[in-house]
Amino acid sequence: MSELSVNHLLGIKYLKKQDIDLIFETADHFKEVINRPIKKVPSLRDITIANIFFENSTRTKLSFELAQKRLSADVISFSAAQSSVKKGETLIDTVNNILSMKVDMVVMRHANPGAAYFLSKNVNASIVNAGDGAHEHPTQALLDSFSIREKLGEVAGKKVVIVGDILHSRVALSNIYALQMQGAEVKVCGPKTLIPKYIESLGVTVEPNLRKALEWCDVANMLRVQNERMDVNYFPSTREYAQQYGVDKALLNSLNKEIVIMHPGPINRGVEITSDVADSQQSVILDQVENGVAIRMAVIYLLASKIKQ
Amino acid sequence: MSHKILLTSKEVNIMLHRLACQLIENHNDFSNSVLIGIQPRGTFLAKRIKHILENEYQINNIQLGFLDITFFRDDFRRNTNPLEANKTQIDFLVENKKVVFIDDVLFTGRSINAALTAVQSFGRPSEVELLVLIDRRFSRHLPIQPDYRGRQVDAIQDEKVKVCWSEKDGEDSVYLI
């Protein structure tokens, strides 16, 4: 197979294992491209892409823009704060207005779960979900798995623990789908208030004790506590959270094996992980960022190849 | 479907040696030249040429790379079959080097056109030459001609020239299909 089974990237849930394999193989090629002295290919010179971010983002937006530019696509970007959304325009109207400027693909981040799915049913363009509320963040999960594959050879059979704010995390859900699809075993670990009630129905187990979780795993994906999504207090204090669920160098060194530390960013240094862990040899956090560009190039390239002339 | 043999194993072998000798005429010890096989099928020819230069003419330290042109092709989204990429492996810069592109068949010239763009990602070569085993001379879409050719073939558009290599296909031969 050398074509994706989908026309949009709305979530990992809608992909097949073969799609993920194809995205990774294509990303391998693009990773080589972005390490050349001249890092650009002309493939998408007749494609226009709109990046529509209704929520704040630094690295995802930059990463998408860079990926699109490396592929020679024409790119327009907008943030909700500066747009007519503030004036009361609906999502479909906003996007259709952009599409009438002959845009072929829309990359969207939105606070509402299902926003990308909704858009894909109502507008005539290829949609890439760059995060929809607490639902999915497929490109992040793909780059996380790609980074595991790069560091450990393969994803199948690996034990991955996702630590922290699972309840509000789209990264967690997409990662669970992606890792399981590739044959990895997944545990989640965090304060009980931040673990969704029915998480076990996804086939993951819950480990409330961080040390036990770390001793079990090959990879620990440390999530950020999403204060902006918390309407009530889910734990007594940040200090207590850091003591219970933060990873520091002493804890890491006391384990009987060397595990890989990941973080989707942005890091709250001293909360989820300390600085010496974030900057240690075991951390692949900056590799994740580099791989993010290659993965997004692969996703955009493969989706663009399905857009009819 | 009829298969007509254009070149036998012996003829391919003679041709490879001739092409290697022609390269030596122009590139001496290859100190300022690099060979680049065009993915996917040009890589076999490139490795063979390098092997002959090293083993039969004792020219060592020849730099050989493989260039994939998938992302530089001009038929993206125009082809019914999805394009499949191959690995690019060029561990050197081509800045001010004499580059020799090596491919098995020169047909429309569009692959070489894409390769000329793609190679610029690795620097600005002082000159670029083209070596092909088979030159389908009346099929060109672009003003591109080889500097070294094994055999010129006149074939109609619907016919296909297939170059077989022993390491991949079990024998060295060229067929018209």
UniProtKB/TrEMBL annotation, chain A:
Catalyzes the condensation of carbamoyl phosphate and aspartate to form carbamoyl aspartate and inorganic phosphate, the committed step in the de novo pyrimidine nucleotide biosynthesis pathway. InterPro entries: Asp/Orn_carbamoyltranf_P-bd, Asp/Orn_carbamoylTrfase, Asp/Orn_carbamoylTrfase_sf, Asp_carbamoyltransf, Asp_carbamoyltransf_Asp/Orn-bd. The lineage of its organism: Bacteria, Pseudomonadati, Bacteroidota, Flavobacteriia, Flavobacteriales. PROSITE patterns: CARBAMOYLTRANSFERASE (PS00097). Belongs to the aspartate/ornithine carbamoyltransferase superfamily. ATCase family. GO terms for molecular function: aspartate carbamoyltransferase activity. Keywords: Pyrimidine biosynthesis, Transferase. Carbamoyl phosphate binds at residues 59-60, 109, 137, 140, 265-266. The keyword Transferase applies. The gene is pyrB. This is Aspartate carbamoyltransferase. Pathway: Pyrimidine metabolism; UMP biosynthesis via de novo pathway; (S)-dihydroorotate from bicarbonate: step 2/3. Residues 8-150 form the Aspartate/ornithine carbamoyltransferase carbamoyl-P binding domain. It catalyses: carbamoyl phosphate + L-aspartate = N-carbamoyl-L-aspartate + phosphate + H(+). Residues 157-302 form the Aspartate/ornithine carbamoyltransferase Asp/Orn-binding domain. L-aspartate binds at residues 87, 170, 224. Gene3D superfamilies: Aspartate/ornithine carbamoyltransferase. Heterododecamer (2C3:3R2) of six catalytic PyrB chains organized as two trimers (C3), and six regulatory PyrI chains organized as three dimers (R2). It is an enzyme of class 2 (transferase). Coiled coil: none annotated. Its EC number is 2.1.3.2.
TrEMBL record, chain B:
Keywords: Glycosyltransferase, Transferase. Gene3D superfamilies: 3.40.50.2020. Pfam families: Pribosyltran. The keyword Glycosyltransferase applies. Residues 7-156 form the Phosphoribosyltransferase domain. GO terms for molecular function: uracil phosphoribosyltransferase activity. The keyword Transferase applies. Its EC number is 2.4.2.9. CDD domains: PRTases_typeI. NCBIfam families: PRK05205.1-5. This is Bifunctional pyr operon transcriptional regulator/uracil phosphoribosyltransferase PyrR.
